[in-house]
Amino acid sequence: MSTLKTVAAAVIACAVVGGVGFIAFAEYGQHKNFASISAKVDSADPAQVKRGQYVAITSDCVACHTVPGGQPYAGGYALQTPFGTIKASNITQDTETGIGGWSLDQFDKAVRHGIGTHGYLYPAMPYTAYTKMSDQDVADLYAYISTLAPVKHKVVENELPFPFNQRMLLAGWNLLFFKDEPFIATSGTPPQVARGDYLVNGPGHCAACHTAKNLLGGDVAEALQGGTLQGWHAPDLTSNPHTGLGKWSDEDVISYLKTGSSRQSVASGPMLEAVENSTQHMNDQDLQAITAYLKTLPSGKAEVPVAVAASDPQMIQGKRVFESQCEACHVSSGAGVRRMIPELRGNAQVNAKDPASLLNVVLMGADAPLTAGNPTGAGMPRFDWKLADEDIAAVQTYIRNSWGNSAAKVTAEQVKAARAEVGAKPWLGH
Ligand code: HEC
Ligand code: HEC
Ligand code: HEC
């Protein structure tokens, strides 16, 4: 019997015996031994440690396993999920509170198969993508992580409410949404595209943010066509010309990943962190590979909505707000200032179905990325205290429907909800 059938049979059996079978199955999965990694580990080999450090960069382990301003890899960073807060573990070499003394197989079981010290890991840890990492990369990463100085720092990972705090549930989640399969390049793909595919869908875990999630937090079928998390929208990365990278040249994508800005856009929020910790440190060959792969992604359904008419009362109000508050920087044609102020015209994020990032940036402002390639970024001021919900909604509708852009109107209710979500200050006017 294939494993798939075994699994299906297990699910049916559970229904019959009222869950007892499922728990037994879940227990079994938890204690299962996975094939040992063939690649060798030598933490005294500086070349392997160096390779492992690069793997840590491409997979951005530091992003979640470090609290801002805290000790690298000592854990405690809180990830907000729709089900509650999950904290990332301490993965330094401390034997009591970290992963000191772990074997390579134990490490592999956590990183690629989602089973850690407390049992099944929550998919907030992106093992769903890391499962595609090669044996060699995992061994190199282990060699590097083994050199991290121990930091004593106790983390309580799981503070979710019942029933979500029951790790056994994750066995069911894995059955539904986790394909524990190694990376296999599609046959006939050029090596550069295959490398990009590996980086994007394996270590780079781009889909963690750029693929929308269903109600249970599993990936929807429309891979890399945009997703929303923690008050930000991570846009479509396919070649969709309206909401995706269809109008971005290879140079634009590489520049964005390397410096956090391109002709079209400037990174903020979680992407700013991804650029600062991860993509800016990738070598040019890998950035080219990612770009080459993204360029092969077919556009999803290209639904270009009809633009709201300039005579619409909300558009008239929005234009007025734009002229008094935004035009000095973003320019009346929406063209911005090259590599300083992003162009709003033809901007995929501005055309996105979900205005979450636009609301976030206009309410809270944004610091431009500080990267080696772009050391003096400009900032976007915050408008939460300065503009009423109706004015923010109007200016959003205006930028989303001017200069050839077209996207759904933004309402004052959406602005109100976004204020609560991102923790904005109240409007000081009246
Ligand atoms: C998007 C955030 C995120 C990223 C990126 C991430 N992790 Fe995690 N990791 C977590 C969270 C959250 C947990 C705790 C999950 C839980 O307790 O169920 C965790 C748990 C772990 C554990 C299990 C620890 C234990 O005691 O069971 C290990 C090992 C680990 N991560 C290693 C890594 C490595 C290595 C990388 C980079 C390849 C990485 N993580 C990248 C969020 C992340
Ligand atoms: C932690 C979540 C997260 C991860 C992981 C992530 N992104 Fe993003 N990404 C975002 C968000 C949010 C934005 C929108 C940022 C903004 O509006 O300034 C974004 C924007 C982008 C953009 C600009 C798109 C546009 O139209 O403006 C590109 C290109 C991009 N990401 C590529 C990638 C690639 C490639 C990876 C994997 C190597 C990746 N991202 C991983 C969250 C993420
Ligand atoms: C002082 C100059 C300045 C003013 C005034 C200003 N902006 Fe910005 N804006 C910026 C800069 C710089 C960025 C890029 C910041 C970043 O993402 O790190 C930006 C980013 C944005 C973005 C995000 C674009 C993207 O690709 O993610 C939007 C949307 C935006 N501004 C809209 C507005 C609106 C609407 C107003 C008026 C209410 C406004 N801005 C006023 C400088 C300005």
Short description:
The chain has about 425 residues and is mainly α. It has helices at about 5-15, 20-30, 45-60, 60-65, 105-110, 125-130, 135-145, 170-175, 190-200, 205-210, 250-260, 270-275, 285-295, 315-325, 325-330, 350, 355-365, 390-400, 410-420; strands at about 80, 85, 115, 120, 225-230, 230-235, 365, 380.
Can you characterise this structure?
Pfam families: Cytochrom_C. It is built from 19 helices and 8 strands. By secondary structure, the chain is mainly α. The protein has 4 domains: 1-32, no CATH class; 37-167, Cytochrome Bc1 Complex, Chain D, domain 2; 191-295, Cytochrome Bc1 Complex, Chain D, domain 2 (Orthogonal Bundle), CATH 1.10.760; 313-422, Cytochrome c-like domain (Cytochrome Bc1 Complex, Chain D, domain 2, Orthogonal Bundle), CATH 1.10.760.10. The strands form 4 sheets. The chain has a two-stranded antiparallel sheet with strand order 1-2. A hairpin with a 2-residue loop joins strand 3 (115-116) and strand 4 (119-120). The chain is globular, with a radius of gyration of 23 Å. The model is unreliable at 1-18 (pLDDT under 50). The chain binds heme C (3 copies). One heme C (HEC) is lined by residues 265-266, 268, 325-326, 328-330, 341-342, 347, 349-350, 357-358, 361-362, 366-368, 378-381, 383, 395, 399. One heme C binds next to helix 10, strand 6, helix 11, helix 12 and helix 16.
